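Q: How would the structure tokens look for this protein?
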Amino acid sequence: MMSALLNARLNRWLVFGAVVAGSGAALIWFHQLPGVTWRAGAEKLSTIRAERALPHPDTVALPPDFRIKSEHPRLPVPGSISKNVAQNIRMAYSATQSNLVARILAARIEPREQVLQALFERLTALVPTGGGDDEAKTLALAYDWLYAYWTPAQRQALLAKALSACEHEITFIRQAKLSPYNVILYNAPLQGLMTCAIALYPDHARATPIMAFTYDLWKNRVLPVWRQIMGRNGGWHEGGEYVGIGIGQAIFQLPNMWRHATGEDLFKSEPGIRGHLDFLIHRTQPDGRYVSWGDAAFFKRHSPDAIALALELRNAAAYTFLMNDNVAEPTSWPWGPALDASLTDPAAVGRLPLSKYFDGIGTVFARSDWTSDATHVSFRAGDNYWSHTHLDQGAFTVYKGGELAIDSGLYYRAMTDHHMNYTSQTIAHNTLTITDPQDVIAGPGTSATLAGARPSTRPIANDGGQRRIGSGWGVEEAPLDIDEWRENSETYHTGTIERYFEADGLTVAVADITPAYTNTLSGLGTFSHRTRRVERFWRVFAYDRVHDIVVIFDNVSATRANFKKRWLLHSVEQPMVENAGFSVRVAPNRALGHVGSTLRSWVLLPTSASIELMGGPGQEFWVGDHNYDDNGAVRERMHRLSPQARHPGAWRVEVSPSKPNTDDLFLVVMAPTLRDANAPHAVKLIRDGERVGAEIRGPARTIRWWFAPDRNGVWIELSDGKVTRGYEVMGTSTAKQWLDFNPLMGWFRGSD
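A: Here is the predicted structure in token form.
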């Protein structure tokens, strides 16, 4: 009974029930004291996912109305090509395996018998290795593109070879349980599988289950996950190079092959696919590097499908912005649109909107303009999609003339102490931590902790941050489809942007980030869901491009007053504590084109806040009582970073209330300026009854930002000296009244 009650009302302080015994009734209550965790069933609760597997090809069937192009080639194929393009292809496919692709193309251009025979001998000697992606793609391409030129015996031999390679691919995908939420599926396995299925079906009975498995994976698993993550506007949850080596080489290839074979045009029907180009552009800072989030080590890596997608959509801004010297034909596998210089338009980027909300991943990007001196900000508040993500909901970044408020930590090798105790945890990001000293449950052991045998547990630093879910934590496997994600949405739901607003040069996001810290399993003694520390965390993030000002308001309720709250901002260089706030400076960096800049910050709430600095040599990655620098390895790598590398940071600002409170409000105003220029603003705290706010007077206008303790949102009053306008930007959350249990009065703490 206790287990059922706990699961029904774990987000309450009281678990309340009545037990009837004989003719009387006994009133029983269980009061979960903050800092005390329920241990019963902890191991079972840590494993949130029942054993599941992708279906066997023989157990799935194609829809009765499924149709595919009957004649070969069924895969995208070039028309006439120039000698220059042919030479580019030979250079692009210079490796031993890929050289076969160049030979296949050469044979299609000039199908001489001698060339075909030599190619056939090399193809039939292929043996799938690893996932078999290259072999499956190459054999299927040769069979399809050169179908008319093979002898009947050669054709049958290649068909049998390609069928075996494709079945090997399916076995690998099933055994590895490749997830549509994870980069590995898009590294090549899915492209290899689709190439095979399209080229071979329906030429042999063995090709039918191959196509059925491919259809099910593509239509029923991959595309629903794309729609979930990409939303209406595009975007992807994995950061840095993982976009380029994963979704960035699938976003055009897969829909293009599918359309060529079946006639279904997903470029027209799927807004998330079209929005991928916007995502690539808006995530890019003025210095040409991507905003850092999640596991990422490279921030200027080409996204292979970008130019092909831009050509497909005739997107001049994306084509111009994303084109680089490495782009050549073919623009995509196995063939993409030809390069088109007429699509180049340097002015097109400047016509793009300055703010963009990517609703699927809960991420906002905004900038002051499209010049190299622009301010660029980002804000995240959404759900967790497992793969290569960090515990960073509510985090923001600020860039102007250099990186001012950064996503800190170094990703150089997964599962190290630096990666798990610092970089992946909330402490490394510009959001909030709320620390329960007793939140010390050890995590699952990993082979990276000790050489040799895998330990059963691994202590993880108590950073006061968000629930530990996703890849790397060893708790749950990647969801195999959206249904599995939804079945475990209690775990994966970590935040919501309840309202997004743009007007008058303002970009505002109203977010509820409570579930990143607290769900119905928090406080049950599980490692991943942690103790129950947070009852409410609302954050309003706003950027005013006219003032060039960032405003952040937080409404936070802890489970106990003595759980310390820290508002965090990370920087490369040492911040300075100043009257009523702090400042951050970043030096010029000629290699990166950084001219240097300053971030002036006013801490309006809490009143009389404690502002502390943490960092410097030997304390760059400090959590609790330890510097997680992998015994000096991180510092050594920092010294060896190239001038163009992203710095992992060395300092953070911690803003805390001056005394313990259950409920606290944080209100911080930040003004980035180039070099050492002073921000031309007058900023002050204002009050109106229960409402609090910030008044910001600048050269062009005055804005008052009003917030109420019981509402998640903001009222904005804007005056330019002639006209006064008002905006009400409200989310859906409202504060609930709580009562502590009183056995004499019959009160219990709950929301009903």
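DSSP finds 22 helices and 28 strands in the chain.

The first helix runs from residue 2 to 8.

Upvote if useful.
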